[in-house]
Amino acid sequence: MIVKALHAKSPEGQEAIAALLARFEAGDESCAKAVTEIIEAVRAGGDEAVLSYARKFDSPGLELNSLAVSSKELARAYELVDQDFLSTLDVAIERIEGFHQREMEDSWLQTRDDGTVVGRLVRPVDSCGLYVPGGRSGSTPLVSSVLMNGIPALIAGVQQRVMVTPPGSNSEVSPYLLVAAQEIGVTEIYKVGSAWAIAALAYGTPTIPAVDVIVGPGNQYVAEAKRQVSGLVRIDMIAGPSEVLIVTDAGADPTHIAADMLAQAEHDPQALAVVVTTDATQPERIQAALAQQLPRLEREEIAGQALGDKGRIIVVDSLEEAIDLANQTAFEHLELMIDDPWAQLPFVRHAGAIFLGGYTPEAAGDYLAGPNHVLPTMGTARFASALGVETFLKKSSIISYSKAGLAGDAEHIKTLARLEGLTAHAASVSSRFPQE
Questions:
Q1: How many CA atoms are closer than 13 Å to the CA of 164, on its beta-carbon side?
Q2: Which residues fall within 8 angstroms of residue 226, CB to CB, at 6 or more apart?
Q3: CA dist., res. 172 & res. 224, Å (int)
């Protein structure tokens, strides 16, 4: 048995649900001190500190003058990728752009009869940093991370979009990443990764510019670095291990359920794949499908560990109970693999992304559907949203009073100011009407 099967109302089931509800972790304390030291070293040492870390952990032969990806490297990347990739890239970009264009916010104004105008001015940040993980030292280039981070920034109108990604041992970046970046207008790319990349983006070095927003996934060092620089810059989120909750009924295909659990589990030994089913006969069939499919995976060991340690199949008495549990646990990915998922959608309150029906695997959302795959984890979907265009926007309030408008509001303003003991506030209004 790869995954434990439990009834929600059993003692073990209650314990498993309690663990799901308490899965939030603020950060990885095991690396916090090391990350603090890295950030301080980069803040003080700039390029030399960045280069030292890059040589030690990624590319021993990396030189300062090759820290930035050159125009020659960018051009040569197109010679190293195949046409099938370019065709797929075009489709992915079109879908992701089409979705995120709908997210763009407009400035707006309200006017009052006395001439007062209030409103909101929506503007992009000046610059952003796009962190793209190395992906097995470049052997599995995470092209989707380039697109999901870079396209919303492009649509928001961010003028300076800087990409950082760790180089391979040969001091090169995967041509697939370089082509994907160029296709969405990102040409300022630096061969730097991990916590020292985040530090460089936050504080700037002579070579790498400081930015206003840093987005992108990464390991525990990247996540901790983002946490530590948050406040100096905006970050997208502190992401935990990837997770999926699959709600099923008697009509769901156990083969598909198992396949989607494995798709999540292969990410990382800490990945979380949970099934909540109304069909008491399904656990056995899901377990059989998992046993059949797991040995075929390239990442069998990783997926097997994730499922064995964290995977669960929880049996509930009703679909209402299943949806209630989904709302309580607020998963990153929620699959409704049930007979009529659209009927249940109005009752879903908390999920990073919702996948409806048996032919909507979470993998479709990772790559091609259009919505962003950078999603809140660890239950934070209760209050957080996917990365989007708004991540790269800021809003300024607009206020304009006419003389008549301020005169009409003056006594109310002064009443509140005096109540708070801020008499200069009140006086700043009174000073405009000295004879009245």
A1: 29
A2: 198, 214, 218, 235, 238
A3: 26
Domains, the chain, with CATH or none = 4-25+240-369 (3.40.50.1980), 29-235 (3.40.50.1980)
- pLDDT tens profile 375-429: 999 999 999 999 999 999 999 999 999 999 999 999 999 999 999 999 999 999 9
Task: Look up 172 and say whether it is catalytic.
Answer: no
Residue 292 has a CB neighbour count (10 Å cut-off) of 11
To the query of whether residue 332 is one of the catalytic residues in this protein, the response is yes
Residue 189 has pLDDT above 90, yes or no: yes
- Which residues on adjacent β-strands are paired with residue 4? 312
Q: State how far the Cα of 234 lies from the Cα of 393, in Å rounded to an integer.
A: 11
Please identify which of the residues 100, 333, 350, 373 carries the catalytic annotation: 333
Residue 177, class by beta-carbon neighbours within 10 Å (0-12 exposed, 13-18 middle, 19+ buried)? Answer: buried
pLDDT in tens, 143-183: 999 999 999 999 999 999 999 999 999 999 999 999 999 99
**The one catalytic residue among 172, 243, 332, 335:** 332
